[in-house]
Write a structure and sequence with these properties.
Length: 276
């Protein structure tokens, strides 16, 4: 691939559509098609690849996103650091709509998604990924988290530093009982797309961190009718401009040279495959 990038942003067209000189690049992967083309552009002197997580027409529900293809495509394009914004529900009343939270932990409550590249199934090139077990105690790149936090503070949008993102299967929202249970664990926010993105990124030795925007209070934290999709879209629409500003600022704050350890996640392991 001639067009290369170093930083990936997984998010919708609201983030890249107004950039100058955006190049659309189609990437094929051993895992099938990514959600869409990559859209490559330049920001703060860095080459950035944007990937619309749900497809540019937003036609893919969270459980049907080809997460393996998405992360593989980004790596194949040269990306080594990924910023992953996502809309979430607040599980605690103190995290109401408009809260920007940079999680430091994750709980996986998804059910049907392929979570690994190392499953023993041969790739089209004949190589066979071995079974490997990676450390995942701290699921996010700390350098990426700090870049997002610093960018938000600089913008004047005080972020919440840390908290647990609970990822549910969707596409439905939680029942009130599920939501109350999640909240009772002390978890901060709930979403549908932050996993298995995070672990797949680790398996490809990519830096990955999430930047969550609270669009609603989840069913267990509010006393009304529960979450509606319209409400989520409205709050997201109201905040997408400043979320984009923070993201773009964060891109420029990512270290040019990685020394965070994410790039050594597979060191010493015989994976059986060669990463792109
Ligand atoms: Zn890292």
């Amino acid at each position: 691939m001639s067009e290369q990038a170093e930083i990936g942003v997984i998010g919708g067209s609201g983030f890249y559509s107004f950039l100058d000189d955006v190049t659309e690049v189609t990437v094929e992967t051993p895992y099938g098609e990514p959600s869409d083309s990559l859209f490559l552009g330049e920001l703060a002197g860095r080459r950035v690849a944007f990937l619309p997580r749900h497809g540019r027409k937003h036609h893919l529900p969270p459980h049907r996103i080809n997460y393996r293809a998405n992360l593989w495509a980004l790596r194949a394009a040269g990306v080594r650091q990924v910023l992953a914004p996502c809309a979430v529900g607040g599980l605690q009343t103190k995290y109401g709509p408009g809260t920007l939270l940079v999680p430091d932990q994750l709980v996986d409550r998804t059910k049907s998604r392929v979570q690994t590249y190392y499953d023993g199934h041969p790739l089209p090139d004949g190589s066979v990924p071995h079974v490997v077990h990676l450390g995942f105690a701290d699921p996010y790149c700390e350098a990426g988290r700090q870049a997002s936090l610093a960018a938000a503070r600089e913008y004047g949008w005080e972020p919440v530093d840390g908290g647990t993102l609970c990822v549910i299967e969707g596409p439905r929202f939680s029942t009130r009982a599920e939501s109350q249970w999640h909240a009772a664990q002390g978890w901060a926010v709930v979403g549908m797309t932050g996993h298995p993105e995070a672990v797949l990124a680790r398996e490809l030795e990519l830096c990955y961190s999430s930047l969550t925007l609270v669009t609603d209070l989840d069913a267990g934290a509010e006393t009304g009718e529960g979450v509606s999709h319209e409400e989520v879209l409205r709050v997201f629409g109201e905040n997408v401009g400043r979320l984009r500003e923070v993201l773009f600022n964060a891109v420029g704050k990512l270290p040019a040279k990685r020394d965070c350890g994410c790039g050594n996640a597979l060191t010493g392991l015989d994976t059986g495959i060669t990463l792109p």
